[in-house]
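Exam prep: given the inputs below (a chain plus inosinic acid), describe the expected output before reading on.
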Amino acid sequence: MNNTNISIYLTEDEITERIKELGQQITKDYNNEPVLLVGILKGSVIFLSELAKRIDLPVTIDFMTVSSYGAQTASSGVINVKQDLSDSIEGKNVIIIEDIIDSGNTLNRLIQLLAVRNPKTLKLCTLLDKPSRRQVDIDVDYTGFIVPDKFIVGYGLDWDQKYRNLPYIGIVENL
Ligand code: IMP
Ligand code: MG
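Solution:
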């Protein structure tokens, strides 16, 4: 694999350290109550796996695949649920786990969709946030890192489905 045009932005150690802190914060906030981590596929898988290990609470995990129609189309902000959760979230403490929040359109719709299923609580945790690109206001409860308006890969994030397995977070140069 040729990684020459990807520069390291966050090292594996830096990410691990931050995920530990997020896990401790979540553990403290939920005060022994069980939490359900809802990972948005595919980008969140590596982050979710690492975060789950750092949460000292009864944890369950579920996944959902959604695709968002791009902002350039008329149906901007509409999401298509390609694969739904396997269980009900009613009465549960749900934390949505995302890789990165960009325009915020996907999450905005997803939060609305999950909120009507009557979870006990619904929070949002993202590894990365690109606030400079936001189109809709999103209340983010847990953020790993704020990133610049660059194309990011690694630690679950892809470029044309590749580079998800990089153990660090990189910026694709010369895009
Ligand atoms: P949005 O917030 O609805 O614009 O969409 C966010 C989704 O777009 C994320 O969950 C990623 O899958 C993808 N995405 C946004 N920015 C990047 C990036 O810099 N690298 C890789 N994927 C990205
Ligand atoms: Mg995503």
